[in-house]
Write a structure and sequence with these properties.
Blueprint: H1 10-52, H2 61-73, H3 75-96, H4 104-129, H5 135-140, H6 142-149, H7 151-168
């Protein structure tokens, strides 16, 4: 009987690690990019645009600089969309590969490892953004900071959703189904 069980189901819980790494990577990238732009690139770009633009040109250097920093700042309001997309990814993976309920215990072990990693990533993000060099970036990315400060809870909620899809949406024996 166990040979008939679809063993791909544990890959659905592995998607927790994918979501965890992507959230951490994007948030860290955004904070570092904003800080690098604000501290170093912005002034150099201003000097370069001012000195290279002919006097009679219709170039508005301030507008160009504001549009550039505005593009980087757009990562903050778009972060919830990334979160929804990653949740959708995890749920679709759960729908594609149903597994036997006995494997929930393995999923709980995977959850424990994912929560430990989420705590480490959350603390790392907090350590970086509490640094004096990155305080402006942390203030600019409020939504991202909120999600990253609650990353273990976010991963736990995703685990519960994946488990509900994998084990709660099961068909009765004899009606077709996942295995």
């Amino acid at each position: 009987m166990l040979s008939k069980i679809n063993k791909r189901g544990q890959a659905d819980f592995i998607s927790l690690f994918f979501v965890l790494v992507v959230l951490f990577g994007i948030s860290l990238f955004a904070v570092i990019l904003y800080n690098a732009y604000d501290e170093n690139i912005k002034d150099n770009l201003n000097d370069a645009l001012t000195s290279s633009t002919p006097v009679d040109a219709n170039a508005n250097v301030t507008k160009v600089l504001e549009q550039t920093s505005g593009g980087i700042r757009m990562l903050n309001p778009m972060f919830p969309l990334l979160l929804v997309g990653l949740f959708g990814f995890g749920l679709i993976m759960a729908l594609m590969g149903k597994s036997h309920p006995i494997f929930l215990f393995i999923g709980i072990v995977i959850l424990a490892v994912a929560i430990i990693l989420a705590v480490v990533f959350s603390n790392t993000y907090e350590s970086i953004t509490s640094n004096a060099n990155f305080e402006n970036a942390a203030e600019e990315f409020g939504v991202m900071t909120l999600v990253m400060n609650n990353l273990p809870l976010t991963i736990f909620i995703l685990f519960c959703a994946i488990a509900a899809v994998m084990y709660g949406m099961r068909t009765q024996p004899g009606q077709g189904g996942a295995y």
